[in-house]
């Protein structure tokens, strides 16, 4: 819907409805809005675009909608409106999904590997494949995300064949859209058909697919556990901290570089990559979108390109949103090096991944909090965060 129209429509509703009915109506960005912040300060998650402070959990739900809208407008591109119909069938090792709208169809068939037994089992959706250990009592479904939206060139893939090649949407949100259609299919078919419990689903992926897994968990609240692995910049890395690392001489992938070649972001993101002071979000907000659901960020301290300080620092800021929601332990951060190899989980982090899967998907005991790195950083959160953390009630 045209944002201006929605804005006007909401104004009308606001006159007719009591405030409590507006929970779903907070996501519009005023058409005249422009942000002017600092490239050295992480934006405040707890202030609405109109300047009002977020002080309750209900208001946070509303601010979360606003942040979802900001990610679409500034960085990821628009998520298509949910007007299409989704039908699904399950065969022995495939979930066959058909999305249709306006006489067009999009079909894709993620693989399914089920544990033996009758279920229902929890499941992990892996973008491209899983490079964390999946317990034998958890189902694994693999999405061929590059077939949905190619990293390169822009506009290639089933998402664009279906919605049109001129979409501003980048790959990350197109992949997340497909993950949500898997969730639709799992819910629609139900555990009797799929042997999968749609209320115990996690999502993972590594590197670019880790960025996609993170965005999937951020946008779809039905996902109970988000496990982004070595996603670096565009995942847990805050663009502003990345930019400072780059300035300091680290060979980290920064915003201005990431928009060249790899088509993961909105075409509009390029307007902000060279002036981050105009970007009303940073990636601590991405963690905040997942909150208070389970999130374990798995990072690699041994690869400069992934921006180890930025992922650590940005996770520290993102966790403050969990703190505000009295769920600090729900977000874990586990960072270690494994020589110079990428997407090979270091032995020292295996137990952390298992702990989060046990906790969120298998309903085992709540563990102690995990927030660790094998490096020592000279990182001062107070330098980047000039907002206070409310205790949302
Ligand atoms: C600011 O926006 C929020 C979310 O839409 C709303 O709840 C609040 O009432 C607004 N504040 C003002 C002063 O308009
Ligand atoms: C960049 O270098 C300055 C000066 O040494 C230091 O204070 C700062 O923490 C560094 N920034 C990052 C993100 O590593």
Automatic annotation (TrEMBL):
Q: Does the keyword Cell inner membrane apply?
A: no
Q: Please list the GO terms describing molecular function.
A: carboxylic ester hydrolase activity
Q: What class of enzyme is it?
A: hydrolase
- List its EC numbers: 3.1.1.117
Q: List the coiled-coil residues.
A: none
**Boundaries of every 4-O-methyl-glucuronoyl methylesterase-like domain copy:** 97-325
Q: Name one Pfam family in it.
A: GCE_fung
Instruction: Report the leader peptide range.
Output: 1-23
Q: Which reaction does it catalyse?
A: a 4-O-methyl-alpha-D-glucuronosyl ester derivative + H2O = 4-O-methyl-alpha-D-glucuronate derivative + an alcohol + H(+)
| SUPFAM superfamilies on file | alpha/beta-Hydrolases (SSF53474)
* Key words of the record: Hydrolase, Lignin degradation, Serine esterase, Signal
Q: Which GO terms describe its biological process?
A: lignin catabolic process
Family to which the UniProt record says this protein belongs: Belongs to the carbohydrate esterase 15 (CE15) family.
What protein name applies here? (4-O-methyl)-D-glucuronate--lignin esterase
Species of provenance: Triangularia verruculosa
